[in-house]
């Protein structure tokens, strides 16, 4: 299902004018460039190690320049993260930030300046004119939180596909309906109280007043899947409840959007999140789950979990499926995505289960007990053969290690915690 206010709106209708006004008055998310001195915001999509693995299968050489487009960069969280990762790793390439909001571009450019990033470029322009303002081709395109605000998401995604280099990929994020329960009810109420053609300042005042008196029975009060309306300041409240155009896609509709653009998901983030067997341990239910097609299983997971507020995916052209390096080959080099292996091992309980959260949902993931000794060895330099040799000195035979490693990697890959390093 999708939530769509109009079937075929004009490219620049009243809602579009409202969006332009919103992001000029309240650039989103609210960011202070001075904070770049003390922290780097990390997330998905567009984490460099994720791109290396999920988009390029850990087969694209690190020395090969990476040309990146961030389409609708906003105030720049994803762009700053990726450009910083590239700079720290000495990776050649450029991150081109495209947005039609001068206010947003001013913030992201100042953030880049504080960090001393010289691998970023800033272009003001509309995604619908991308062939003219950012002709490409691009090896990787980030379009996070943008498609669901466009007058025609299909046209926007098609425009991005046309500037994607052969063998390239994209990182996308769209809103999902069930985890945003309560949002659309309030959006509808506020649009009646403060129509989209009113000035942003007045609309925000109405939203604040409504939130001060919101009944305890309102679904938004029960929903803890996000907090923009509580901690995101004026920009967060406005974007959540006053955005003039806001669609939500369930996973079936998201796949359909990709299909129409000739794209396919290389990875839904995190893959295990879309496995309903994690949530439904009953053996008979798991038999039924296993018999379902993959997309149907993903839909069941979304329906049952109820807390998916977004869908994040790495995608490629459907006729260019990703070819991944073999994670069990002796020369493969595993790498922790972000959390050090020692820290992850320490999180394991006495029952050899790793507590893991998918948003507000916590599950217990079973791992072999030997994971406590293997995970701290993963440093992004040791090969699988190196790990096996070390574990052999600890009494784990090579054949036994192979079975244990298969379980560890398969499980932690599905949680986006252990990936493979790209070749030099």
TrEMBL record:
Domain of life: Bacteria
Pfam families: Methyltransf_25
One MF term in the entry's GO annotations: methyltransferase activity
Species assigned in the record: Komagataeibacter sucrofermentans
Keyword Methyltransferase: yes
Record-annotated membrane-spanning stretches: none
Domain Methyltransferase: 68-168
UniProt xrefs under CDD domains: AdoMet_MTases (cd02440)
Biological process terms in GO annotation: methylation
SUPFAM superfamilies assigned: S-adenosyl-L-methionine-dependent methyltransferases
Protein name: Methyltransferase
Keywords: Methyltransferase, Transferase
